[in-house]
Amino acid sequence: MILDMGPMLRGEVDTIPVDYMLRPEPLQGIEFTADAHVVGKVTDTGGYMRLVLEADMPYATICARCLDQVDGVYTVSFERTVAEEKSLTEEQIEDNVDEYIIVRDGQLDIDVIKGKAKRKKERKQFFHRMHSFFKS
Fold it and tell me: Which of 45, 97, 107, 128 has the fewest C-beta atoms under 10 angstroms from its C-beta?
């Protein structure tokens, strides 16, 4: 999703709400049973802009230990400082990729949450640990 940051950059608003559906990236062994529901906001507090998102992703998978089906909702949180491209050097952008999300030409691409959730192996381990915990 692309957000028009113009009103915030011009000082007309201090909050831009976010609420949309996003198709999660495929993950081997895990079926996302519905699109992720992403909610959050971009805020501007005295020139300091911050993006806060949370995505709920319904899933189904098979437990590697007991082979039972596991159904649940995986929640991913994402927070970044929002900066205009012209306010940072190229080196700052490259060195701080996990700290900043960049406004380019007045627009902010917030679909970066798709790739930032966690690494695939960690997600798979999480699902199996959760299933083991609830079976006990």
Answer: 45
